[in-house]
Amino acid sequence: xxxxxxxxxxxxxxxxxxxxxxxxxxxxxxxxxxxxxxxxxxxxxxxxxxxxxxxxxxxxxxxxxxxxxxxxxxxxxxxxxxxxxxxxxxxxxxxxxxxxxxxxxxxxxxxxxxxxxxxxxxxxxxxxxxxxxxxxxxxxxxxxxxxxxxxxxxxxxxxxxxxxxxxxxxxxxxxxxxxxxxxxxxxxxxxxxxxxxxxxxxxxxxxxxxxxxxxxxxxxxxxxxxxxxxxxxxxxxxxxxxxxxxxxxxxxxxxxxxxxxxxxxxxxxxxxxxxxxxxxxxxxxxxxxxxxxxxxxxxxxxxxxxxxxxxxxxxxxxxxxxxxxxxxxxxxxxxxxxxxxxxxxxxxxxxxxxxxxxxxxxxxxxxxxxxxxxxxxxxxxxxxxxxxxxxxxxxxxxxxxxxxxxxxxxxxxxxxxxxxxxxxxxxxxxxxxxxxxxxxxxxxxxxxxxxxxxxxxxxxxxxxxxxxxxxxxxxxxxxxxxxxxxxxxxxxxxxxxxxxxxxxxxxxxxxxxxxxxxxxxxxxxxxxxxxxxxxxxx
Length: 538
What we know:
This protein has 538 residues and is an alpha/beta fold. 41% of the residues lie in helices and 14% in strands. The protein has helices spanning 2-6, 26-40, 58-68, 85-95, 107-123, 140-149, 169-174, 180-183, 197-210, 220-230, 234-251, 258-268, 280-298, 326-335, 343-350, 362-365, 383-389, 436-442, 468-480, 494-506, 517-524, and strands at residues 46-52, 73-78, 127-132, 160-166, 186-192, 323-324, 374-380, 393-397, 411-418, 422-427, 430-435, 443-452.
């Protein structure tokens, strides 16, 4: 339900090294190029070294590299470097699908079997590569054995290419004098650094898009807080963003602001509590407290005073609306009168407007100002877009065709609430719940919505405009971005147009930078006055 709430087809911030989610920053592209060149063409053998801080994407780059290697490359991938020299050779041989049953436990037997395989591969035009992840955990003996493998060669060609992936400690390890022979054989080195502040948003948007969402779930200020808390480390970005999404779902917030990001960061980045030694006096104090607590529990207590009797009405909770399954919803639609059937008056009542106070037939023609301070917007919208607008709306529903196959006239209902599984409707004089899928089977996308705002915003602002309408628009765009409105009169310039495009993109509206009725209605929904769409149906 969390994924559906934000429009994801799959988790966007999993920490598994899925190559589909790889975001290649400039440094990641350089690192991948170094690895690819070192394996396919560079140096005729030897070592390729890639280092980086924990969580910067070394293993993910390795997975991506494996997908890009040509067909003449054979790879042995070692994921567990905590091995003895014999176990390391056995692991490499098994990864290359060699039969080592008769030489297990023998360094010479394994070495000879690998040498024979490499000569045969060379004769067939194949390149053999050993990739060792977390190489900083290799023992000195295992590193020396790895170096000896590079001695397998012909007069003109090294037979084995070795790639070492590790944390920065690997660089320190290879600088030791006893490993200078290995260090001299490294033909390509690259150190992967975290993402900078400008790349963090691109990284997040890339993963959101790959996961199938069309709206970006974080505000601009939330992205800045994500960059600050994670330090640009992709794994930490994933962990904090995933926790923030969970917090946003629990609190029904979309988009997610900086407050939830800070909360998520405190949960996942909290340092372990230091354990202080207990002084001897503390044991005596603890015993005295336990004794006092025991006496307090055993002390006689006065009889509890019974609570005052409640009225009968308070003993009964209000019943939820009846739930209509697919068949009953279709029957209900066919039973009510075509057209509005009172749905327009119900929507006006929710906005505290009497029907006789509104423009006649206001919801048929949907004039811009059907009542003082009340705006009307008619158009097409998805159920997700209606949920994002957070206001009740009229929705047009199509009953099933009659027995002769003729299409029935549409009916109108008031959308009162929507969550991950259900919708709540005012339908033909009663409030009912229905499954989202059943609702969408009848919903044709036509909607009529109301929203309240000052009358001076009736005219759409144009680039270069200023005045009260632009000030109102700028104040709400600043709030949506988590920013503070600059002091003084505002001008609808390129900056505010870009802010408006970001809001439109985040809520599935047409991204044109024009404050049309749908965009103004969305921004007006931020105000506290007026009815709200229910987001938890129980």
